[in-house]
């Protein structure tokens, strides 16, 4: 069984059953674990005709690469990979597009947390380059706590070209960079928008940065020079939400 074909963790498995039950092939639960939420998942799986097996914790540990599976793991059909064409189709159908661009984020925990942020903020999707970036992995789905099932992840071949296509559709792209002179809280984030965040260690690549319409920084008062990309993305997304609601 390929690692890409599994989903583990209560939130992640619950989300697949809720949003895409047809993708679930079979499910394993930890033997002897008495948990109301696990019982509810088993009942839901049965309603969709999903076979459920019990396994020792050690077996689940091995299947999930010793991940925090919370006593449940499912084998699923691969999710359809979304590309630039799918992204532009969505843009055409959306009145006020709102996206998060992640330039070269390779840590699955960060991508999972960013998907969760995007879901909470009501973003229409997350855009990542196909190469040199993490995609949807079991760990990403686990960390996303269900958001990976509802927030589209668009993996594009050429990020700079995709950004230009978004701009041609009237979407303003704001890049986040610690050295930028413009203050995030003084930046207009109310219209059709994409917020671009850089990788964990290098920030925005040159072409990505040059492709942004403006660059803004999060005001920092302490001694640290930067924030984790998932934390920074949450701040930027919800500043946009605040402005849109005001």
Automatic annotation (TrEMBL):
EC number: 2.1.1.185
Reactions performed catalytically: guanosine(2251) in 23S rRNA + S-adenosyl-L-methionine = 2'-O-methylguanosine(2251) in 23S rRNA + S-adenosyl-L-homocysteine + H(+)
GO molecular function, one term: rRNA (guanosine-2'-O-)-methyltransferase activity
Pfam families on file: SpoU_methylase (PF00588), SpoU_sub_bind (PF08032)
SUPFAM superfamilies on file: alpha/beta knot, L30e-like
Coiled-coil stretches: none
Keyword annotations from UniProtKB, A to Z: Cytoplasm, Methyltransferase, rRNA processing, S-adenosyl-L-methionine, Transferase
Residue sites binding S-adenosyl-L-methionine per the record: 198, 218, 227
InterPro entries: 23S_rRNA_MeTrfase_RlmB (IPR024915), Alpha/beta_knot_MTases (IPR029028), Ribosomal_eL30-like_sf (IPR029064), rRNA_MeTrfase_TrmH (IPR004441), SpoU_MeTrfase (IPR001537), SpoU_subst-bd (IPR013123), tRNA_m1G_MTases_N (IPR029026)
Cell compartments where the protein resides: Cytoplasm
UniProt keyword Acyltransferase present: no
Domain RNA 2-O ribose methyltransferase substrate binding: 6-82
Cellular component, GO annotation: cytosol
PANTHER family: 23S RRNA (GUANOSINE-2'-O-)-METHYLTRANSFERASE RLMB
Family, similarity comment: Belongs to the class IV-like SAM-binding methyltransferase superfamily. RNA methyltransferase TrmH family. RlmB subfamily.
Biological role stated in the UniProt entry: Specifically methylates the ribose of guanosine 2251 in 23S rRNA.
Protein name: 23S rRNA (guanosine-2'-O-)-methyltransferase RlmB
Species per Swiss-Prot/TrEMBL record: Shewanella hanedai
């Amino acid at each position: 069984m390929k690692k890409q074909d599994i989903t583990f963790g209560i939130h992640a498995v619950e989300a697949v059953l809720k949003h895409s039950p047809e993708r679930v092939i079979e499910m394993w639960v930890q033997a002897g674990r008495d948990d109301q939420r696990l019982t509810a998942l088993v009942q839901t799986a049965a309603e969709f005709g999903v076979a459920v097996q019990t396994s020792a914790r050690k077996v689940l540990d091995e299947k999930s690469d010793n991940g925090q599976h919370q006593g449940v793991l499912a084998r699923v059909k691969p999710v359809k990979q979304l590309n630039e064409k799918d992204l532009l189709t969505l843009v055409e159908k959306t009145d006020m597009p709102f996206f998060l661009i992640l330039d070269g984020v390779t840590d699955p925990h960060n991508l999972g947390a960013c998907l969760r942020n995007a879901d909470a903020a009501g973003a229409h999707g997350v855009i990542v380059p196909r190469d040199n970036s993490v995609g949807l992995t079991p760990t990403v789905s686990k960390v996303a706590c269900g958001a990976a099932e509802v927030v589209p992840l668009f993996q594009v071949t050429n990020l700079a070209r995709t950004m230009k296509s978004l701009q041609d559709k009237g979407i303003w792209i704001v890049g986040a960079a610690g050295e930028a002179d413009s203050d995030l809280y003084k930046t207009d984030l109310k219209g059709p928008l994409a917020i671009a965040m850089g990788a964990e260690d290098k920030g925005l690549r040159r072409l990505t940065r040059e492709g942004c319409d403006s660059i803004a920084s999060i005001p920092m008062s302490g001694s640290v020079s930067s924030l984790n990309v998932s934390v920074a993305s949450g701040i930027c997304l919800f500043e946009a939400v605040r402005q849109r609601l005001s």
